Amino acid sequence: MGTVRFGVHDVVNIRFAISPLGEAVAAFRAALDPGRHAVHLPWLRPAVALLEDRGLARRTAPLADLARRGALPDALTPPPRCPLSEFEEELAKAPVDAELAEAVRAWWRAAVAPHWPRMRALQEADIAHRTRQLAEDGIQEVFAHLHPTLSWEGDRLVAPHLRQSGRDFDGIELGGTGVTLAPTVFGAECRLLAGDGAAPPALVYPARALGTLWERRDPAGDGLARLMGRSRARLLAHTSSPSTTTQLAARTGLSPGAVSQHLAVLRDAGLVTSHRYRREVHYTASDLGTALLHSP
């Protein structure tokens, strides 16, 4: 039985984050054991083929050796610190030797980075949903819907199968640090990552709507494209979760300059809203934009 006790300060210090480094390691584990990740079959087929490539197999050998022995260091799955972390930023802070770092980097570039915009969009959509749920219904409802095995009892989060760093634990007192909630696209269970002093513990949980991750669909319907132009329709579709100009450019293939121009038009029309987070501006479809996207 795993339990995590929350004090008053822990409840107010709940945050959300995404870890590209953690997702890269989880993706590698999935590729080594594809039978347990059928939902990712469209990605797994080419990913498993990549593992059989001699050149990539040689570069990722240090990672593969540790993964097959179940000896991956906790440093490769650190508690994420913010929703805007980049892979290289996290890897640079991970206390691992250069050989292992290069192995993870080679895997990331070959198998994960090409699909990262799609993966991250799903995670950001999850965070947007949970954040709204937290504001409207409170933390108890958030935990009640993170995973069927989780429950909230008094001041404790209880989960029979919750594990920390691959091990069972009797209970954890957060002690005011709070906890980071981190959605993952690779994993059907919840895991608790121990805090490292600079970051509080993190609860990793399966992101919502994983079944839609690899669906092939045109995000801009023909009718909407005829109304506002295909580029603007595609951009509007990709703002279902908060996205920056750079992220939208990567997802649509448009230049950052073109994305900025189209977003200005969409914002003036009331179809997207914008808000600043640190140094970045995030764009999200407004209620009107969402209704337009889902209109028949």
Radius of gyration: 20 Å
- Largest β sheet strand count, sense and barrel closure: 5 strands, mixed
Question: Would you count the extended β strands for me?
Answer: 11
Distance between the termini: 48 Å
**Number of DSSP helices?**
14
Strand content: 5-15%
Overall shape: it is globular
- Give the strand line-up of the largest sheet: 2-7-9-8-5
Q: Give the ordered list of helices and strands.
A: EHEHHHHHHHHEEEEEEEHHHHEEH
Mean pLDDT: 86
* Quaternary structure type: single chain
- Enumerate the spans where pLDDT stays under 50 for 5 or more consecutive residues: none
Helix content: 40-55%
Structural class: alpha/beta
Number of domains: 3
Organism: Streptomyces bingchenggensis (strain BCW-1)
Protein name: Transcriptional regulator, ArsR family protein
Keywords: DNA-binding, Transcription, Transcription regulation
GO molecular function, one term: DNA-binding transcription factor activity
Keywords:
14% strand, Arc Repressor Mutant, subunit A, five-stranded mixed beta sheet, 296 residues, 3 domains, 47% helix, alpha/beta
Characterise this structure:
The protein is about 45% helix and about 15% strand. The strands form 3 sheets. Strands 2-7-9-8-5 form a 5-stranded mixed beta sheet. It has a 4-stranded mixed beta sheet with strand order 3-4-1-6. The chain is built from 14 helices and 11 strands. The mean pLDDT is about 85. The protein folds into 3 domains: about 1-15 and about 125-210, no CATH class; about 20-120, no CATH class; about 220-295, Arc Repressor Mutant, subunit A, CATH 1.10.10.10. It is globular, with a radius of gyration of 20 Å. The longest helix is centred in the middle third of the chain and has 22 residues, at about 115-135. With about 300 residues, the chain is of the alpha/beta class. It starts with a strand and ends with a helix.
